[in-house]
Design goal:
Layout (H helix, E strand, L loop, with lengths): L2 H25 L11 H20 L3 H7 L12 H15 L7 H7 L1 E2 L9 H6 L7 H8 L12 E9 L8 E8 L8 E8 L11 E13 L2 E7 L2 E4 L7 E2 L2
Parallel strand pairs: 1-4, 3-8, 4-6
Antiparallel strand pairs: 2-3, 2-5, 3-4, 5-6, 5-7
Length: 245
Amino acid sequence: MSLRLYRFLQAFILLALVVFIGFKLISGTLSLYINMQYMPLTVFGIIMLAIMTFVIIQHPSLESDEHEHSDSDNQHDVSPSALIILIVPLLIGVLIPVHPLDATAASTRGMNVSAPLVGSSQTREFQSAADTRNILDWIVIFNSTNDLSPYVGQTARVTGFVYHDPRLSANQFIVSRFVITCCTADASAIGMIVNWNQSAGLTESSWVEVKGPVQASKLGGQPIPLIEASDVQSTLQPDQPYLYP
């Protein structure tokens, strides 16, 4: 491949990456790929890619012009391997539709109901009203304090997708969310077991809002929060389906 063609393709792919990532950012779907706290870094990356594209377009390699007038034996060839590295993630992003991880992914990656995940602000989680805590907040509390008596009996109101764990009884399901530390590659499924007589009628991966008092249970010797549901209602998937520690 000639150097001139290589530079043209390089600029085209970089521009395509700028447009693709920029569109994901503007449309709000970039949060389905990465933790939102890395958004400023992503914006910086878009700017740098745009600058690189501009430099390549505005300042074509002088070496390319020199070789156009040289003998064919002296023609400089460039390996396309670097272009392949650039274009593969672009093709994956364009060709594979993005959608939030669901119960199918949870069954593959595993479901945690007792993972000692630490939130960004335990004080906030402990002091917040019970019905404002999410699934991660409850799990953090049950893994961060020895005295659970102040929390047992409090009414939870959490939103998540339905996951039918084969280890549970027929009147139980797990209300679940995925937690992302960096990006979806490291996503972990967490959830709270729910006692609900109509559990079998809930559709896998459907989103529900669960209300009811929280009880202390144990799984593998680890304390876990369990909801004695008083109400389970279908709901829309949140605009941001993931939780962040």
